[in-house]
Amino acid sequence: MQEPSAHARRRPTPFADPPPLPGPPLLRQSWRETVFAHWALPPEQVAPLLPEHTRPDVLDGLSYVGLVAFRVPTTTAAGIPVGGFGEVNVRLYSVDGYGRRGVVFLSMDADSAHNVLAARTLTGLPYMWSDVSLRSRGHVHAGAVRRRLPRGGARGRWRFTVGERMDHPGPLERFVTARWGLHTRHAGRTLWIRVHHRPWPLYRAHSWTYQGDLLRAAGVHVGDREPVSLLWSPGVATGVCPSLVGAPRT
């Protein structure tokens, strides 16, 4: 994997508004009560974890790893309701040879066995059947996840407080949330899957506490450092449309 060029390190942040989908969405979901916790990392640390033909996307020379948790109250696949679930994922940020900038999921914990099985089979996404608990009382939010298989697997527990609304998100907030697709490795190819939703309404979050090994289990080490960015959103409605075009070599 080549080191990112100086031009790549100065790459502007993603578009604030999503481009239109290439066709009707095959999957519709609502993502609600979402927390984004992010840590900065050197791009060479995350490059080996990305799918073939992609490289780390960077902002001011740094890449980021995110711990993101949210509720999915509704899911419709090809017009058929398939239920909701809670999800917790660990994710990185990628760009391919077409300049498509997206998310790479290292782990995706969800408390719906049939949705986990379908997603792993059809897309290769690293979903795992887990116990997920997401709770809120006023401005205080808490969550926990425990992986069912393998027994004794990764787990995490966190708590935070929602603060003031961000009317003008800055470059870092746009970098980690204005993502209109994902890269995933499946059936021997790196695929690009488009995601469409309105820009996230964002709030600052405070008083973060976390215990667990979700990032370490995904191959990322941040030690005892606090997140450099902590955000919360009431949520968005999404549409997902897979692309038939794989990612080219970088």
TrEMBL record:
Signal peptide: none annotated. Transmembrane segments: none annotated. This is DUF2071 domain-containing protein. Residues 1-24 are annotated as: Disordered. It comes from Nocardiopsis sinuspersici. Residues 15-24 have a biased composition (Pro residues). InterPro entries: ADC_dom_sf, DUF2071.
